[in-house]
Amino acid sequence: MSRDVEEPTPHVAPSKGKAESSKSKYKRILLKLSGEALMGEHDFGIDPKVLDRMALEIGQLVGIGVQVGIVIGGGNLFRGAALNEAGMDRVTGDHMGMLATVMNALAMRDALERSNIRSRVMSAIPMSGVVEHYDRRTAIRYLTSGDVVLFSAGTGNPFFTTDSAACLRGIEVDADVVIKATKVDGVYNKDPVKHPDAVKYDQLSYDDALDQKLGVMDLTAICLVRDHNMPVRVFDMNKPGALLNMVVGGKEGTLIYRGE
Ligand SMILES: Nc1ncnc2c1ncn2[C@@H]1O[C@H](COP(=O)(O)OP(=O)(O)O)[C@@H](O)[C@H]1O
Ligand SMILES: O=c1ccn([C@@H]2O[C@H](COP(=O)(O)OP(=O)(O)O)[C@@H](O)[C@H]2O)c(=O)[nH]1
C-alpha cells in the first residue's frame, strides 16, 4: 500500500465521503485515548469531567468535518500484565482488560451523546445487546456519514495492547493518521518521566523508533504502522486545544513516519 505520508502535502482522499474538511489537514483520523487519562485526578475509574472535556475536543474536530474513529485503552480499570503479576492467568487478565475498554467506550459514547455528537460503539468481542460487533465495512459507512466510531475490546486477542488495536483499526479503515493522545507531549530519546534531560523529537522514522526501542508505543504497533506506512502522531492529551491545533496543521507532539 502506498499511503501518502502527511508531509509535504496533506493527504485528502476523495473516496472518504462528503465531509467538508477545508480547515483540517486530515479527512479521517484514528485517535487512541489512554485509559489511564480517563482517571483524571483519581487512582482508578473514570472521571466524568475528563470525559466531558474530551467530548468537547472531539466535537470540535467533528465540527470542522473530520471523520473520527477512536480506540480507548483500559489501563484505568484493568491491565492483563498487572493482573498476571498479581497471580492471575494472563489470558483471563487480558480478557478483563479488553472488557475494561468496552466500559470506557460506553462512558465516552455517553459523554459524546450528551454533547449531541452522534457516535457508535463497536466491539471486537461480540456482546449482543450491549454494543455492535466490529465490522470494517459498517464502520467505514458510519465514519463516512459523520458518526464518531469507538472501537472497543482492542484487537479481541490477548497479548496485544490498545496501541496495536489503534494502529490496526487505523489501517483497516484507511485513516490518514493514527493520533496517540497520552500523558507526555511527544516522543523523546528516553522516557521523559524518568529522565528530565530527555530530548524531544519533532519527528522520527519508524526504524529509529524501533532501533532505539522508544517505550512510548509498543514495538508490535510500530512494526504494523511501518509495514503499512501509516503516520502516527503522539501528543499530550492534557493540553487543552492541542488536538484541534494538530489536526489543522499546528505544531504539536511528535510525528513518527517513514522518514526521508
Ligand atoms: N522515549 C519515550 N518518549 C516518550 N514517552 C516515553 C518514552 N519511553 C517511555 N515513555 C513513557 O510512555 C508513556 C506513554 O505510553 P503508555 O504508558 O503506553 O501510555 P498510554 O497509557 O497512553 O497508552 C509515557 O507516559 C512515558 O512515560
Ligand atoms: O488487543 C488487545 C488490547 C488490550 N488488551 C488488554 O486490555 C488492557 C488495556 O489496554 P491497554 O493497556 O492498551 O490500555 P491503555 O494503556 O491504553 O490504558 C491491556 O493491558 C490488555 O490486558 C488485550 O488483551 N488485547
TrEMBL record:
**Which pathway does the record list?**
Pyrimidine metabolism; CTP biosynthesis via de novo pathway; UDP from UMP (UMPK route): step 1/1
One matching Pfam family is AA_kinase
Q: Which gene encodes it?
A: pyrH
Q: Which PANTHER family match?
A: URIDYLATE KINASE, URIDYLATE KINASE PUMPKIN, CHLOROPLASTIC
Q: Which reaction does it catalyse?
A: UMP + ATP = UDP + ADP
The protein's name in its UniProt record: Uridylate kinase
According to the record, the protein's activity is controlled as follows:
Inhibited by UTP.
> What keywords appear on the UniProt entry?
ATP-binding, Cytoplasm, Kinase, Nucleotide-binding, Pyrimidine biosynthesis, Transferase
Residue span of region Disordered: 1-21
Q: What does this protein do?
A: Catalyzes the reversible phosphorylation of UMP to UDP.
Please state every residue range assigned to the domain named Aspartate/glutamate/uridylate kinase. 27-236
Q: Which residues bind ATP?
A: 32-35, 75, 79, 182, 188, 191
Q: Where are the transmembrane segments?
A: none
Gene Ontology MF terms: UMP kinase activity
Where is this chain's protein located in or outside the cell?
Cytoplasm
Q: EC number(s) per UniProt?
A: 2.7.4.22
Record organism: Vreelandella neptunia
Binding annotation for UMP: 74, 94, 155-162
The UniProt entry, under NCBIfam families, shows: pyrH_bact (TIGR02075)
Spell out the subunit comment.
Homohexamer.
Q: Which family does it belong to?
A: Belongs to the UMP kinase family.
